[in-house]
Amino acid sequence: IHTSLFGTVTVKPVAGGAINPDGTQTVDLEVITESAPTRTVAASFGYSTGQGIRAEGSWSSRNMFPPQGGVTFRGVAAEREQVLAAEFRRRDWRKRDQTLTFGTGISAEQQDAFDATTFQIGARVDRVSNLNWQKSWTYAVGTEFLITRQRDRSAPNDPNNTFFILALPGIVTWD
Fold first, then answer.
1. Hey, how many other C-beta atoms are within 10 angstroms of the C-beta on 153?
2. How far apart are CA 132 and CA 139, in angstroms?
3. pLDDT digits over 79-124, tens only?
4. Under the phi-then-psi rule, with left for phi > 0, alpha for psi from -120 to 50, and beta for the rest, what region is 22?
5. 3-state DSSP helix/strand/coil percent for the chain, to nearest 5?
6. Is 29:10 a contact under the CB 8 Å cutoff?
7. pTM for this one?
8. DSSP 27-68
C-alpha cells in the first residue's frame, strides 16, 4: 500500500495444513490485492474574509513515465492568488527510497501590502524513511531558482523591483 500500487491488500490463512509434532501448523497465505487508481483528480473551493474566494485543483498520474515516474499539475484561481505549477517525481531513483523531483511554476499575488509575480524552477533529491524500511538518517538536498517582480504598495510611487534568488536548501534528519 505504501508504494501506491495497491488500494487494498488482504492476507488470509488457508486452512488444511498438517500439524507438526511440536504442535505448530504450517499454513498457506492467500493474498488478495486491488490495484490503486493510476490517476488522481482533486479540487477544493473556499472562502475566507482575508483572502476571498479560492478554487484549487490538481491532476496526478503516479506512473506516467514507468517505472515510478509520476507527474502532478496544480492550479489555483483566487481573488488574491493565481498559480500554475507542474512537478515530476521519480521514486526509487538510483536506489530504494530515494526520490528525484523537478518542479516549476508561475504565480501572481495581489496582497494589501504588495503585488508579486514569481517564476520558480527547482530540483531535489530526497532519501526518505517509511513504515516498511525505516532509516535513522534521512536527507533532502536541492536547488531552486526564483525570479520575482514585486511592487511595494506602501512605498511612494509604487516602485517595481525584480529579484533573482538562488537557493540551495538541504535537510538532514536523525530519528
1. 12
2. 18
3. 999 999 999 999 889 988 899 999 999 999 998 889 999 999 999 9
4. alpha
5. 0, 70, 30
6. no
7. 0.76
8. -EEEEEEEEPPSEEEEEEEEEETTTEEEEEEEEEEEEEETTT
